Amino acid sequence: MSEIVNYKMMTVTQAIKDRRSIRKFKPDRIAKQQIELLISSACAAPSGKNRQPWEFIVVMDEIERDKVCNVMEQGIDQSEKERFVGTQPAIISSARNTLSIMRKAPATVFIFSPDIPHIGTPRTLLESLYDLAFVQSIGAAIQNMLLSAVEIGLGSLWICDVYFAYEELVKYFQQDGLMVAAVSLGVPDEMPGMRPRKPIEELVQWR
Ligand SMILES: Cc1cc2nc3c(=O)[nH]c(=O)nc-3n(C[C@H](O)[C@H](O)[C@H](O)COP(=O)(O)O)c2cc1C
After folding, report:
1. pLDDT recorded at residue 18
2. Among 25, 159, 190, residue to substitute to test ligand 1 (most atoms within 8 Å of Cβ)
3. pLDDT tens, 134-187?
4. Is the pLDDT of residue 3 over 70?
5. Which atom of ligand 1 has the smallest separation from the CA of 162?
6. What is the pTM of this model?
7. N or C: which end of the chain has fewer CB within 10 A?
8. Residues 75, 127, 109, 10: is their CA dihedral positive or negative?
9. How many beta carbons lie within 10 A of that of residue 50, not counting itself?
10. Please, which residues bridge with residue 110 across strands?
């Protein structure tokens, strides 16, 4: 793996500071071993009751990528016509923009949870508490992937606009559990500065 995966020597704090959402990727292919490394970082995340409530579908093949993106496009069209009628048009156009990024990304990893049912499933209070813990666990797993991507010189984009084609993508992938997010990956072709953050003083109470 060491010939294919080049590590930058950096602290975790540095990786946190260097990470950006990357929306322009070079066309260079990325190696399966690089994605395996990111997924093993994801799987090292803590999880509620150590249930490890995650599963991954890696789309790297160009023909498959086009198929998935076409399914997503149909889903967004459907959302615009039926599911999100009257929603701000900017929300749908933002989803289309995300799709155009995914069409050019050398790899996109879809993250599903077999432990959480699809959106809209009625839940008891206890079940919804478990769902909450599992979604947090998956957030930690995704962030681990993103930070390891920084360490090996890859850019990433965490994507929830897949929700605008939720039904279509879940049907396409034939997955029973919740589609939580997708992450597009590739060699960055931009170096954006840090996006603004709220000042810590506004966010923290010291008691
Ligand atoms: C849960 C989540 C969902 C996101 N979904 C999208 C998305 O669908 N499309 C997109 O372009 N960016 C998406 N982003 C990226 C955010 O826009 C980005 O993290 C934020 O603007 C801060 O920029 P930074 O990541 O460069 O610090 C998402 C981020 C998170 C954490």
Report:
1. 98
2. 159
3. 999 999 999 999 999 999 999 999 999 999 999 999 999 999 999 999 999 999
4. no
5. 8
6. 0.97
7. C
8. positive
9. 8
10. 57, 182
The closest residue, in CA terms, to atom 25 on ligand 1 is: 21
Domain residue limits, the chain:
22-191
Among candidate residues 168, 25, 23, 170, the one with its CA nearest the CA of residue 97? 23
Total residues belonging to the chain: 207
Q: Is 94 helix (H, G, I), strand (E, B) or coil?
A: helix
Q: How far apart are CA 204 and CA 207, in angstroms?
A: 10
Q: Which CATH number fits domain 22-191: 3.30.230.80, 3.40.109.10, 3.40.50.720, 2.130.10.10?
A: 3.40.109.10
- Rounded to the nearest angstrom, the distance between the alpha carbon of 145 and the centre of ligand 1 is 14
Type of residue at 117: P
